[in-house]
Amino acid sequence: MNDHDLHRTRIKLCGLSKAEDVQHAVSLGADAVGFVFYPPSPRSVSVSQAVELARHVPPLVSAVGLFVNATPEWIREVTSYVPLTLLQFHGDESPERCAELAAIAGLPWWRAVWVGPDAAASDLVESSLNYAATNGILLDALVDGFGGGGKVFDWSLIPTDLGHRAVLSGGLNAQNVSDAIRRVRPYAVDVSSGIEVPGAKGVKDPARMAAFVRAVRAADAERI
Question: Which domains are present in the chain?
């Protein structure tokens, strides 16, 4: 493993709903693309849409399915047709529920941990311990609607050890992601609203997608 790999922040571009957005994400070098399977979300996709989108995800790029308080039947339906790589639980799921749903799909999983204005570093540590069976912890700002609100939380709350192995989310964009990487040193970053046309939830902006990836790579270059 070379120095570049050691310091490379992985990138997930989430809430993609059009084939051209998936193709653009792949061309930019994204490590993962995210599909939302939560019908109330403006970024949600149907099973048939996701099947088509997944056709544009090449090998070694992860296809992540985001679920919010999903039923076993919904997990089974989606994963029976959509070739996902990983499940991301973004609701109120307990550790036991996450494990149960992941077992149905036979896939690894991440758990989103909400960071509110009253959170403390000890709360994040406790959450990470509670979800010790997960393949990753995603740190996101507490907002109405289970994420995608474009809100930033206090990064100074993140313990160094947790930050280095976490996926950082919540209000990231091309303007602040470099600073986030310098301060938190996350394993990966996850963006959705920060790569969208302003005021148009779910509508991705190719220029903002490219600017976000450039900013991440610029921050990584400072670490080599």
Answer: 3-221 (3.20.20.70)
Query: Where do we find the tokens 């709360």?
Result: 123
Task: Tell me the C-alpha distance between 107 and 113, whole Å.
Answer: 19
Residues with catalytic annotation?
14, 140
CA of 121: how far to CAs of 83, 116, 132, in Å? 36, 11, 17
How would you write the pLDDT of the chain (224 residues) with one tens digit per residue? 444 566 799 999 999 999 999 999 999 999 999 999 999 999 999 999 999 999 999 999 999 999 999 999 999 999 999 999 999 999 989 999 999 999 999 999 999 988 888 788 888 888 888 887 787 889 988 765 555 556 788 888 888 888 888 999 988 999 999 999 999 999 999 999 999 999 898 999 999 999 999 999 999 998 75
Which residues are registered as beta bridge partners of 32? 12, 62
